[in-house]
Specification:
With 589 residues, the protein is mostly helical. It is 38% helix and 4% strand. Helix 4 crosses helix 5 and helix 12 packs across helix 13.
């Protein structure tokens, strides 16, 4: 149902948008999205400057001629098919008629102040439909997007609009004309925007293209770049001249103060000038000395190393490859700063040492040292292959005495190196290592036998007998205690108060059968209990290297880790199960 534009509705709209109840006091009126089909009852609103009527159902523009102060009129998204009823709007500057049903523009020539016109998304299809724009004297911005305008005649028509400087023609068949942008720019000298900004270089190129084609366009672009370079050069020269002029003026003012002031002022000014000049000279001399010292001796090598070290980038942390492995190329050796010891060979050498040339002394050919690769590495430089140098090179270097030192050195000669005495041999440690080696050889032989048996079973044949390791066979009387044997020994030892025979009988019950190990005897139990007492004290309780040897056969399945677990010495002596019911057996692991 249509909503009429009643005076009450207009006042309510003013109140909702911070306006006034008195119509004459309002300069803005918001009537958009109301569903109005006619414009009416606006006679009291004589001071309106902006009127919003978009998104309604308006078919005709009417009832607006009395709004002499109106500047902006927004009637987009309506059903308007003809432009009319705008007579008397001499101050109207912005008119939005987009998204309507316009097929022909008319009634716009009577708007002398119209500057911006939006007629996009209408049904304008020919140059005659927009010929009314030529009569708009102040029109500067025009939006014709998404219409059906085309043909070369549009170029001449738009160029006839007196003050047109910005147009939008995207979405029209006009854009399919070859070189349309260059043609429009060349035909409209005032054009500054055509769907995007038009800069000076593009305008010069377009004008040259219109007169001389592609070659003239390229020449215009080159000339423009050259003019810009010359302008930048002139600007920099002007800035430097300005700086020099200001410095000269400041110096002249200082000299004038020194010449025209009192004796004290003259003296102070002259002293300031002399101090400034002396400071500049001293700074320049210090810089020269520092630069000369930096290249003396091995300074060139140091400067080169510092340069490459400063320009080297910080290596990234190594990243594993797709297989989860680290590549050797991911690692980088750290840089080492060259030192005097690595570059210069000292003069304090022993008489029996090989002869080395001091790099600080001048060479025989008059060249300074420090630039040769052999001198930086502390070696003698080989002689040149000449006839005079041949007999000299044939002399043995060891027969030459060391050169006498002509300069006094405050650095004392380095003391002779003293060889450190060999570490004492620990018999117990050697025996322990031998036992561990024997245990490992037995374990490897058993693993190999199991693997051969598995392969033979898979092939359906009998596995060949496993040859024992002949390198270090374990002694027949050596006994290896497992954790279960240690627990049984500790339990029986405490119950029988050290009866080794009863302990040996109980331990033999839990001893795993093995052809390479004899049954446990009373002496073995006594020896084992002594070892447990020795390892149960503080300090070596958790040392894996000092743990007693354990037989891998009696420790269960090596693949499940029980053999590796039994190699560790107990943190404390095992406690008999009968004494404490809450014994933590995991702590003994």
């Amino acid at each position: 149902m249509a909503c009429p534009m009643t005076p009450e509705a207009l006042v309510k709209s003013c109140q909702e948008n911070d306006g006034y109840e008195t119509p004459e006091l309002n300069d803005q009126l918001y009537l958009h999205f109301k569903g109005y089909q006619r414009i009416e009852n606006l006679e009291p609103y004589t001071q309106l400057k902006a009127l919003w009527l978009e998104s309604n159902g308006l078919h005709v523009l009417e009832g607006l001629s009395h709004l002499a102060e109106l500047r902006c009129l927004y009637v987009q998204q309506n059903l308007i098919a003809k432009v009319q009823g705008l007579d008397g709007l001499n101050k109207l500057r912005v008119l939005d008629l987009s998204q309507n049903r316009l097929t022909h523009l008319e009634g716009l020539a009577g708007l002398p102040s119209l500057e911006t016109l939006n007629v996009s998304k209408n049904s304008l299809a020919s140059p005659d439909a927009v010929r009314e724009l030529v009569g708009c004297p102040a029109l500067a911005t025009l939006d014709l997007t998404n219409n059906q305008l085309g043909g070369d005649e549009m170029i001449g028509l738009l160029s006839s609009v007196p003050k047109l400087a910005s147009i939008n023609v995207a979405g029209n068949p006009l854009m399919s004309i070859p070189k349309i942008r260059k043609k429009m720019i060349a035909a409209m000298p005032r054009l500054a925007y055509m769907d995007r900004p038009v800069f000076e270089a593009e305008r010069l190129a377009a004008e040259a293209f219109a007169t001389g084609g592609t070659e003239a366009e390229q020449q215009a672009r080159d000339d423009f770049r050259e003019r810009n370079r010359q302008k930048e050069k002139a600007d920099r020269k002007a800035f430097r001249d300005w700086q020099a002029q200001k410095r000269a003026e400041a110096l002249q003012r200082q000299r004038d103060r020194a010449a025209n002031g009192t004796d004290e002022e003259k003296t102070a000014a002259r002293s300031a000038l002399e101090a400034a000049a002396k400071q500049r000279d001293e700074r320049a001399q210090a810089d020269a000395e520092a630069e000369r010292a930096s290249v003396e001796g091995s300074g060139v090598a140091k400067l080169a190393h510092k340069f490459w070290a400063a320009n080297a980038t910080e290596p990234l942390p190594p990243v594993p490859n797709m297989f989860g492995q680290m590549e050797a190329s991911e690692f980088r050796a750290p840089s080492v700063e060259p030192t005097e010891q690595a570059v210069t060979v000292g003069a304090h050498a022993h008489a029996d040492a090989p002869v080395a040339t001091e790099l600080s002394a001048p060479a025989a050919d008059g060249k300074e040292d420090g630039g040769s690769r052999f001198e930086e590495e502390g070696e003698e430089e080989p002689p040149m292959p000449t006839e005079e140098a041949a007999p000299v090179a044939a002399k043995p270097a060891a027969a030459m005495p060391p050169p006498p030192s002509t300069t006094t050195s405050t650095t004392p000669p380095p003391p002779p190196a003293v060889e450190a005495p060999p570490p004492p041999v620990n018999a117990e440690e050697e025996a322990r290592k031998q036992r561990v080696s024997s245990s490992l050889e037995i374990y490897r032989a058993q693993r190999k036998a199991q693997e051969e048996a598995r392969k033979a079973e898979a092939r359906g044949t009998t596995a060949p007998p496993v040859a024992t390791a002949p390198a270090a066979p374990p002694p027949a009387q050596q006994i290896y205690f497992s954790m279960e044997m240690d627990m049984k020994l500790a339990e029986l030892w405490r119950k029988t108060n050290g009866d080794t025979s009863a302990c040996a009988a109980a331990v033999r019950e839990v001893q795993a059968p093995s052809e390479s190990m004899a049954a446990v005897s009373a002496e073995d139990c006594h020896r084992r209990w002594s070892e447990l007492n020795a390892f149960g004290g503080e300090g070596d309780a958790g040392a894996v290297d000092s743990a007693p040897v354990v037989n891998p056969d009696a420790s269960g399945d090596p693949e499940h880790g029980s053999w590796a677990e039994s190699l560790r010495a107990p943190a404390n002596l095992p406690v008999a199960v009968g004494e404490h019911e809450d014994t933590d057996f995991d702590a003994l692991d």
